[in-house]
Amino acid sequence: MSQQDWNDNYLEGALPWDTGKPEPVLVEMVTSGALLPGRGIEIGSGTGTNTIWLASQGFDMLGVDIAPRAIEMAREKATDYAKAQFAVADILTDPLAAESYDFAFDRGCFHIFDESKLRAQFAQHLADGLRPGGLWLSLIGSTEGPARDYGPPRRSARDIVDAIEPSLEILRLESVSFTGDQPGAPAAWMCLARKREMPAQPSTSR
Fold first, then answer.
1. Residue 66 has pLDDT above 90, yes or no
2. CA–CA separation, 51 and 193 (whole Å)
3. Which tens digits make up the pLDDT trace of 20-57?
4. Beta strands of 8-129 (E only): which ranges?
5. This prediction's pTM
6. What is the CATH number of domain 3-10+23-195?
7. CA 152/CA 199 separation, integer angstroms
8. Contact 63, 85 (CB under 8 A)
9. How deeply is 17 buried, as exposed, middle or buried, from its count of CB atoms within 10 A (0-12, 13-18, 19+)?
10. 132, 102 in Cβ contact below 8 A?
11. Distance between CA atoms of 132 and 151, rounded to whole angstroms?
């Protein structure tokens, strides 16, 4: 979808992905101590719910989205949160400032790209913006679960690994669901990865 298509969704209020509540998987990762406060960025921040929640937990956050109307709505919601800033940006064409972030989050942004080269580009640009040891947490539509003709795009575990392994070290790849354990919630992958300190080594064979 183009910037205009996404922006139209926000202008029309067609936002099935916007629950108005922080993502439960993200909340659990932060409250458990698996993710510690630092300078963070949310890719595809929408109306800012997760960015604002992270700011309330001590993160110094920037939320970026391709849709100008989404950023307007997020700024309206964030007036009481100095640590939540927002900007219009496209991660594929507006690379992040090099080694600027301790943490990156996206809920359903990585999976929107149908072409494998674009998913790899997404991962590389994101890794470039992370500081050494920086973490990326992503919720990605999964190939698990029953057939459906609606909801988030589906990506296989192989799709994820092929895209991110050159630039990010995978720490966890787990089957979860969007919006926690709500009945009928689409299956998702929870991927936690870290900026590489050394290249992935070639696969070996005898």
1. yes
2. 19
3. 899 999 999 999 999 999 999 999 999 999 999 999 99
4. 39-43, 60-65, 84-88, 101-107
5. 0.92
6. 3.40.50.150
7. 31
8. yes
9. middle
10. no
11. 35
- Give me the residue label for tokens 């929640």: 53
Sheet holding 60-65, edge to edge: 84-88, 60-65, 39-43, 101-107, 130-141, 187-195, 168-177
Question: 28: which DSSP letter?
Answer: H
CA angle 126, 127, 129 (to 5 degrees): 70
Q: Are 50 and 70 in contact, with CB atoms under 8 Å apart? A: no
Lookup: tokens for 14 = 């067609």
Looking up tokens 């439960």, which residue turns up?
24
CA distance 158 to 136: 18
Neighbours of 134 (CB within 10 A): 23
Handedness of CA 125, 11, 79, 138 (dihedral sign): negative
CB of 128 within 8 A of CB of 171? no
Q: Which residue has the tokens 């110094």?
A: 60
Return the residue matching tokens 């640009």. 125
